[in-house]
């Protein structure tokens, strides 16, 4: 699935939503999105399911792949297909 435009983002803050799915946490993230062109912007990813094994990789300062809606750049999601 390749909906949206690929970009990199730096994690600014994470929080636990209190939800787990099959023992994996659902987290929220505040990120700084760096598009291929143009200025970076802050965005909130309200809920994203990650593997509990990946928790150390989802910490402030880490860079993660994301996708955003070019028509509505505040709509950002983890790009799990390109994450490893």
Low-confidence stretches: none
* Number of strand elements: 5
3D shape: globular
The number of helical elements comes to 0
- Helical proportion, percent range: under 10%
Q: Please describe the biggest sheet, giving its number of strands, its sense, and whether it closes into a barrel.
A: 5 strands, antiparallel
Determine the strand fraction and express it as a percent band.
over 45%
* Cα distance spanning the termini: 16 Å
Instruction: Tell me the Rg in angstroms.
Output: 12 Å
Could you state the order of secondary-structure elements as H and E? EEEEE
- Biggest sheet strand line-up: 3-2-1-4-5
Structure class: mainly beta
> Kindly state the mean pLDDT as a whole number?
92
Structure description:
With 84 residues, the protein is mostly beta strands. It has strands at 5-21, 24-34, 41-49, 63-69, 72-78. Helices cover 0% and strands 61% of the residues. The two termini are 16 Å apart. The mean pLDDT is 92.
Short key terms for the protein model shown above:
mainly beta; 5-stranded antiparallel β-sheet
């Amino acid at each position: 699935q390749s909906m949206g435009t690929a970009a990199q983002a730096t994690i600014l803050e994470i929080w636990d939503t209190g939800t787990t799915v099959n023992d994996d946490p659902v987290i929220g993230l505040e990120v700084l999105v760096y598009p291929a062109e143009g200025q970076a912007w802050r965005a909130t990813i309200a809920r994203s399911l990650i593997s509990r094994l990946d928790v150390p990789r989802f910490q402030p300062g880490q860079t993660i792949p994301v996708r955003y809606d070019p028509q509505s750049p505040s709509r950002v999601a983890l790009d799990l297909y390109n994450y490893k």
